[in-house]
Amino acid sequence: MSQNFLSQKYESLDYDQCENFYFLLEQRNQRKNLNILRKKSVKRWFIVLLIGILTALTACAIVVAVDKLSYLKYTFLAQLINDCDDRAGGCYHTPLFVWLGLNAVLVGVGCVMVAYWAPVAAASGIPVIKCYLNGVKVPQVVRIQTFIAKTVGVIFSVVGGLASGKEGPMIHSGAIIAAGVSQGKSTSLNKDTGFFNEFREDREKRDFVSAGAAAGVAAAFGAPVGGVLFSLEEGASFWNQALVWRIFFCSMISTFTLNIVLSAYHQHAWQLSYPGLINFGKFGDISYLLLEVPIYALMGALGGILGALHNYINLRLSIYRIRYLHRPWTRLVEAMLVAALTATIGYFLIHISDDCQKFEYDLVKYPVRGRCQEGEYSVMSSLWLNTPESVVHQMFHGDDKIWTVATLSIFVVFYFLLASCTYGLSVSNGLFIPSLLIGGAWGRLCFMLVKYIAPDNSDWADGCKFALIGSAAMLGGVVRMTLSLTVIMIETTGNITFGPPLMITLIFAKWIGDYFMPESIYELHIRLASVPFLPWEPPSMSSTVYASEIMSVPVVTLKAVEKVGRIIEILEKETHNGFPVVDMDSSVYESSPNTLDDSTQAHFGRFRGLVLRWQLIILLQEKFFEENAESTLKTLNLQTFRAAYPRYPPVEKVVDRISQEERNYHIDLRPVMNPSAYSVIYSSSLNRIFQLFRALGLRHLVVVNDRNEVVGIVTRKDIARYREHVHGGRLSLQTLQISIN
User: Fold this and answer.
1) How far, in Å, are 18, 300, 566, 579, 626 from residue 610 at the CA level?
2) 3-state DSSP call for residue 584?
3) pTM for the whole thing?
4) Residue 141: φ, ψ to 5°
């Protein structure tokens, strides 16, 4: 299956600082002029300010569009259903076909944008942002077309009635905004403002993307601290105090900006009561007794079980999609069928349910009578003829008398299955809100069970409180977040005293969920995409695997002063992105590279430094040849390399401009190579190598012998191939294969 392979199409980002001659020259100039350093620091803060504002404005545009379109759709459908119910003989097929058609068309439009234009914009985007921050270069992950497909597509997905939310995609949208703003250019639009060119490198871009992801969480939930913790817990592989401050500032700006705009939109301009896309409402001072804590722990365990089941169902469906639904038109048909199925289930459940309540227009936006008497509405209709965010609000604040066991049970079963099927479609959608909604519904069922078991001694039981715990447990069981999710729920509900029960619930949800399905939904999709993702910890038994066993040989090396023709030949024939620079006087290839005996080990020259593929391409493009070094040395600097970032010209385009005579010229690689590149001795363990890659964001790691001679090279894929495997109660180290797809 695909999860037993690593895809060759994923390259690594280079988060290691290349301390070459031009970098050191720039650093010396900055130290002489402190104003340069101050300006760079001010620019960083200005960039995160822009990221926060633009992310918030994007969120506002999404919520307003969803609000307006949902109002038109559900008002029309509710009126159509009520008119048909009032007629003698009825016209039950007409509302069904209209509802079905609206869902299919709306979702189809969103799916076309993703399936045919920007496939990486599918789902919430959190897995691909996790990969980017982990050091994996996912194709088109932060492109402007991905941003358009993500933001516009999520509007059609939510309005189209899918079991999805708009909060998860905001994280991806914020990351794309951060990537674009921080670079001051768009390669897709071929526009370069000339601003912020000093931040055009993977290392700087990564930090801004971390801020953008946090701003997306802050805009989605009105939780700036939760956004910072989410970026730490789920995303960033690198962290320091200065970065924390900038990310927190970005999240605060995002929440504040969105609060101002949405409060004005809801005609409460000076109250600032809309800090996030979803408004759970204020719970006030929710108290709890010690007696309740074991109940919440059990609910957390139930959330872990249901979350594991949700992930398992989604895993099996995702494998089927990879095998049989990989063409765009098949993905489009699937998305439209799921949208139609959602409408069909909702319509029939409304008309078979006899759960009725008197009209309360402040609670139900689009009341439908269904099988109820005049002056009543179908409770089931309030669950299906509404946006998921509005239904979550009902679960959290609706009167306990509204809900019945039958209605909630039926809704939980069907919506759970729909949510499991929906995530992974070729549409922009999230799973935060569906999980909260499912958990809120079965949380109220748990409340009813408690009231049934102890009707006289459960005055402390409250349906809204149980719905909140159920929502946290379900979402925790699916995404396996603890710290950040606890803070997000606290900030969203405006109640800090209920933090300990929420944390206990989420801990149990994670423990039990990991027991049955030891991966979050995001980790499952990362594995299915065959991404060389490095988790927080190395696999077990990695200390028994040595560098000599995992390194790649033979190694393509370059001399410090290399012939242009040989560089061109290497770039055209090899796909490697890093080449050790060596002294060739002692280079021999003596015997098997698997031999650990230093006296007989193959080596390829004494290690001097490391030069990257894109650096060689720029040198060829600028014709930085020894024979005309005087003219190029004056113009070549660090800005020359940054100008082409992040998409460097292909070698074929550069080679066409080099004459046959120039192929005999030479290039001095010493000014551009990294003379302090990391290296390890061949007896180093996989555990130590893993820690270096994970903590430092390396792309290449040179393996040397006792005489500092190159004997191999290790890349991300070489260490990502090793994964823990549990079968029959036994733990082993599984080795994956590299796929060309």
Assistant:
1) 9, 50, 17, 6, 19
2) helix
3) 0.92
4) -70, -30
